[in-house]
Amino acid sequence: MIQGIMPSTMKARNSIKGSGRRLLLISLAGLCATGFSAGVSAEYADVVLNRLSDKNDVRPVIFPHWFHRIRFRCKVCHNELGFEMRAGANEITMGKIIDGQYCGLCHNDEIAWGVDNCSLCHSGKHGLKTGIRGSNQTGGPGRW
Amino acid sequence: MKFKSRHLLFIVAVWSALQAQEVIWKSLSEDGLHDPENPAIELLQQPAEALSQLPPDTVGNRVLWNRALREQYIQPRTNIYPETKIEVIDMDIIMEKTGELPLVLFPHRPHTEWLDCTNCHDKIFVRKVDANPVNMFAILSGQYCGQCHGAVAFPLTECNRCHSVPRSTFTGKPGVQSRAN
């Protein structure tokens, strides 16, 4: 966001003359800041899983990490269920889920909705890349 | 005059940025991830519905997750299998190799409330003080603390939540802190 503001600030430094121009630049800076915020979107810690989905012509999975941590501590999925703590590192298939592995330990129509509700999990836009999303994620040389 | 307008512009720009950030918890159909054409989207819980009920933070999900847990706003399950051993460890570690920044205090307690020991040890951290070459570049690259912080736990913009012990006031010994202190 700071990057979005900087150019107009620099411009202001060099070329502000009258108050009309100043107002224009101020509004531009404002718009710029708002625009950049509107661009970011996903809830912090939303996980996109698209290792196999697009290839099989179904929507990618959006896993809401924030939703699950309200109900389960990290250790339930990342210890008991054996999920690696790296998006895309788990070789999850529908076969394994139906066998009760990974998501299938709970998503079995008993604890949570079962596998016949495809589009509740496979709910993402086509073409999304596997990874963790969210508006406040580190923008650095991250691996997310 | 020039000096003034430049500063005014900066203040307004920062203010606009802060105002823009007030729009939190986008609806699923507008989050850029979910396909709005998917009719099932109506059945999913909206982030605002769940997260607005929890103690507010200024970053991440805008939720103070540890407070939410401690004060029982949420009661997430610790295990599914009855035989799973649940360990919560109350031990702080102070790390001193932080350049000129305040020292890092790592509290095991809130971490083990959420995580199992094996999630971090020994895959991410060796169980020995000073045996892990943790540095901010690695963390920003998603290693060490950055495996969760910046991804699912509070983001790396919050320097002083970890760098929380001022060098000027710390008189103890770095490493494992005994409870007597």
Question: Could you explain how this protein is built, in words?
Answer:
The complex is a heterodimer of chains A (144) and B (181). Chain A contains six helices and three strands. Chain A has two domains: 38 residues, no CATH class; 88 residues, Cytochrome C3 (Alpha-Beta Complex). The relative contact order of chain A is 0.16. A three-stranded antiparallel sheet of chain A has the order 2-1-3. Chain A has 144 residues and is mostly helical. The radius of gyration of chain A is 21 Å and the shape is globular. Chain B folds into two domains: 33 residues, no CATH class; 98 residues, Cytochrome C3 (Alpha-Beta Complex), CATH 3.90.10. Chain B has seven helices and four strands. Chain B has a four-stranded antiparallel sheet with strand order 3-2-1-4. The longest helix of chain B is centred in the N-terminal third of the chain and has 20 residues. Chain B is globular, with a radius of gyration of 21 Å. The N and C termini of chain B lie far apart (55 Å). Classes of the chains: A mainly alpha (144), B alpha+beta (181). Chains A and B meet through helix 1, helix 2, helix 3 and helix 4 of A and helix 1 and helix 2 of B.
Named CATH architecture of the largest domain in chain B = Alpha-Beta Complex
For the termini of chain B, the CA-CA separation is: 55 Å
Q: Which secondary-structure class do the elements of chain A indicate?
A: mainly alpha
* Secondary-structure element series of chain B: HHHEEHHHHEE
- Low-confidence runs of at least 5 consecutive residues of chain A: 1-18, 28-40, 139-144
Q: What would CATH call the architecture of the largest domain in chain A?
A: Alpha-Beta Complex
Largest interface: A-B, 68 and 68 residues
- Average pLDDT over all residues of chain B: 90
What's the total number of strands of chain B?
Answer: 4
Number of domains of chain A: 2
